[in-house]
Amino acid sequence: EQLINWNPDVIFIEESSLASVINDTTKYPEYKELKAVKNDQVYGLMSYCLYSYNKDILLADAYYVGKVLYPEQFSDVDPEKKADEIFVKFVGKPVYNQMKAVQGGFKKIEI
């Protein structure tokens, strides 16, 4: 209800919640009238809260959000490469492609 009142220009969705979001947009067609949905500005994020808080994923998501919202300021950032840099620091190896295979990775979402 509040989301409809806000009518945001951009929406970010944790991809682990995507099935619920799609279900809600089917039940409540007014969600399809949101500016972000109508203008194809809905983006998927990796879920940082799986079993515990995964700070590496949270940081990687933040870079992706920055790239989407502030492309000029983040023009030198490739979110997938940055995610791998972060994963190397936290888990010792680049695992973005594995995470992408499981969670969907950074991408636009069609609702």
From TrEMBL:
Residues 1-73 form the Fe/B12 periplasmic-binding domain. Signal peptide: none annotated. InterPro entries: ABC_Transporter_SBP (IPR050902), ABC_transptr_periplasmic_BD (IPR002491). This is ABC transporter substrate-binding protein. It comes from Methanobacterium subterraneum.
